[in-house]
Amino acid sequence: MFLVSNNFFFSFSDVNVAVRKIANLLKPDKEILQNGDHMIIKTLSTFRNYIMEFDVGKEFEEDLAGVDDRKCMTTVSWDGDKLLCVQKGEKEDRGWTQWIEGDEMHLEIRVCGVKCKQVFKKVQ
Fold first, then answer.
1. Is 51 a residue whose pLDDT tops 50?
2. Cα separations (Å) of 99 from 8, 12, 15, 46, 102?
3. What Gene Ontology molecular function terms does this protein carry (predicted)?
């Protein structure tokens, strides 16, 4: 399990202001479970939990209720040793890239040319 070490997350202007303020105070836990090509990524916090379950390389409809209340078609694939997520919907160039370096998990989130980054520290 990884814990976030910085709070530079919700800077997207069309995400509800109250949600952005609360999210910037959070230090969520991130848990990733893998069984072959099937993955479950859990983002857990005292405010809200989000669980993403998918098969690598297969497109699926993702319901982002509670995150930004949008639906999109999502594909997560491997790009070398990084997980690359592409989300097709009402926002252009949307998705994320996630990778591990040592005891840190990096998450770069992008939408409409804006990028945000979180760094999680591994829990011992």
1. yes
2. 17, 22, 25, 24, 10
3. lipid binding
pLDDT confidence tier of residue 4, bands split at 50, 70 and 90: very low
| Yes or no: domain 2-122 corresponds to CATH 2.40.128.20 | yes
Note the pTM of the prediction, 2 decimals. 0.77
* Residue carrying structure tokens 């709070």: 7
- 27 close to 7: Cβ distance less than 8 angstroms: yes
Of the two residues 16 and 69, the one the predictor is more confident about is: 69
DSSP string, the chain: -EEE--------TTS-HHHHHHHHH---EEEEEEETTEEEEEEE-SS--EEEEEETT--EEEE-TTTTS-EEEEEEEEETTEEEEEEESSSSSEEEEEEEETTEEEEEEEETTEEEEEEEEEP-
